[in-house]
Amino acid sequence: MELPKGLAGVVVDQTKVSSTKNAILTYAGYPIKELKNAPFEEVVFLLWHTRLPNADELKDFRKLLVSQMALPYETVQLMARIAREPQHPMSILRTTVSLLGTTNDVERDDPPRILAKMLTAIAAIIRIRNDKPIKHARKNWGVVENFIYLFSGKRPTAEQVSMFNTVMVLHADHEFNASTFTARVVASTKSDYYSCLTAAVCALKGPLHGGANEQVFKMLETIRETGQDPVQYVERRITSGHKIMGFGHRVYKDGDPRAAILREIARKIAHETGNDPYFVLQEQIRDYMFEKTHLHPNVDYYTALIYHCFNLDRQTFTTMFAACRTAGWLAHIIEQQAEGCLIRPSSEYVGKTNRHYLADKEENSID
Ligand code: COA
User: Fold this and answer.
1) What does CATH list as the number for 212-313?
2) Is the pLDDT of residue 367 over 70?
3) Which atom of ligand 1 is nearest to the CA of 299?
4) Which H helix or E strand runs over 99?
5) Coil, strand or helix: which one is 353?
6) 18-207+315-339 CATH fold
7) CB 210 less than 6 A from any atom of ligand 1
8) pTM
9) Could you name the active-site residues (predicted)?
10) Annotated domain spans of the chain
11) How many of the other CB atoms lie within 10 Å of CB of 341?
């Protein structure tokens, strides 16, 4: 029997959180196309409760999340030390999430408090790295507006909030992707929220998953800085056996539905911020990739440019992905702990058999 590579196509459990069936991404049954302008808080509520909140519930939920956008003093102290280190921000985040799980607050930490702290911690990592003071959330603003303010230090315009809201909604969940599945495996052992989230951050960091957005922008910068022809650059990379980051997907073989929405945002914000040349490059690479490989851009291709237009440095891009995906990770941890059982698959052993320790030792000792 041939085993599916990397569990491709294997259904390992059931979920009510989200689906990519027929290459259509839905959250609790709602197509992502219809949710793209829904407030992020509403989408988080939907993922956690598999139903939409009513107006009062949404108001209360937003208030609750924003009221928790603060970090314990001891976490900030420790973060101030580690976030200045030249390590990758995803490594800093991995340690920070683990740290959050060791404070005196941990007993009271439920999903809303944890999500609020994750967003605040990610923004704080960016501020500390840039030698900027940490900002404090404004209680009358929404979660997205606050999040942008916390990492940038400036109150965003309504248009910026709306664009970033869509980015956050589109990244909020994606059924059993690698980091979510990792979180579910840890949750299946009845471990705690922060252990699950730390493991999820580790999985997201890799360039085949969330780390792709950073690599996409690195490619665009290299092409621009060296003045290379983008088509020749990509052609050379493919011929020498490299993958082009931001293309291809395990589930979507005819195009990632999120990428189509993000492309329009990238086009708009690039124009508004004087970054058109990057978008033009992306279009040239996209056309060439389709012609040459029939691969389509995925979610990370356009967010790379969008984050750049929000003045984020490329090393922090994957922490943005983590900020958005924490909502989905928590939804799956909740579901796994409520309904799932221990995840412990089997393997097919293909190594040597019928070996005998003493006989082999004896043979090895003979000159
Ligand atoms: N650039 C060039 N070739 C690619 C490619 C890419 N981005 N993605 C896939 N391919 C090629 C593979 O080399 C492989 O070719 P082969 O059959 O000749 O060996 C074929 O397409 C199938 O790819 P494979 O990696 O087996 O598919 P998968 O379903 O396991 O992979 C990804 C999905 C996402 C891991 C893969 O497309 C990839 O590595 N993309 C780049 C990283 C990325 O953008 N990740 C973010 C995902 S949201």
Assistant:
1) 1.10.230.10
2) no
3) 48
4) helix 89-100
5) coil
6) Citrate Synthase; domain 1 (1.10.580)
7) no
8) 0.95
9) 249, 300
10) 18-207+315-339, 212-313
11) 8
